[in-house]
Amino acid sequence: MTIRILTVDDHPLIRQGIASMLEVETDMAVVGEASDANEGLEQFRRLLPDVALVDLQMPGVGGIEMTRRLRAEFPSARVVILTTYRGDANAREALAAGACGYLLKSSLRGELIDAVRRVAQGKRCLSAEISEEIAQHLGEEALTARELSILSALAQGWENKRIANTLGISAETVKSHLARIFEKIGARNRTEAIHIALRRGLVRLEE
After folding, report:
1. Are residues 33 and 7 in contact, defined by beta-carbon separation less than 8 angstroms?
2. What confidence score (pLDDT) does residue 85 get?
3. Domains and their CATH numbers in the chain
4. pTM for the model
5. C-alpha 166 chain-centroid distance
């Protein structure tokens, strides 16, 4: 049977590249493409593909939220997130949202083709680098929702006073939270904390 594939990515060249890699396979056919999440949802409803390849970071609704909405409407939908972001937090969030796979766009052609076939069979598939990232942080204490919001504000360049005013807490409480955040993620200062947070996908800057 032919595996019917939908690609969702805001970059036309990426969509074309994926199609050119997959179309040469006799058991695969790219039946549709979309440039954003809303169009992707519409295309999925219309085409009901076997596998959807979805970009993580898109303007507006991102790939993880699209996956969440898609799985709510189609519980058996099979989604593979394709991304340039190696962060373990991104991958864990994508899997929790219902994605069946998480692959880097730098993956070799063979890895992508194998992943599509595995996911079409109901299996899961992660890039080796992503699996290693997840393994490195297993057992670590997770950041709380408040800590994540403070870390996100930090990544946007906010000073403690602005964070405190926005969250309705004191500047001293913000400092206490930051100390705890640094301890949890292994950062020595604000700059290092931002670097780690972005690399791991603990926070994402809006495009």
Report:
1. yes
2. 81
3. 3-135 (3.40.50.2300), 145-200 (1.10.10.10)
4. 0.78
5. 27
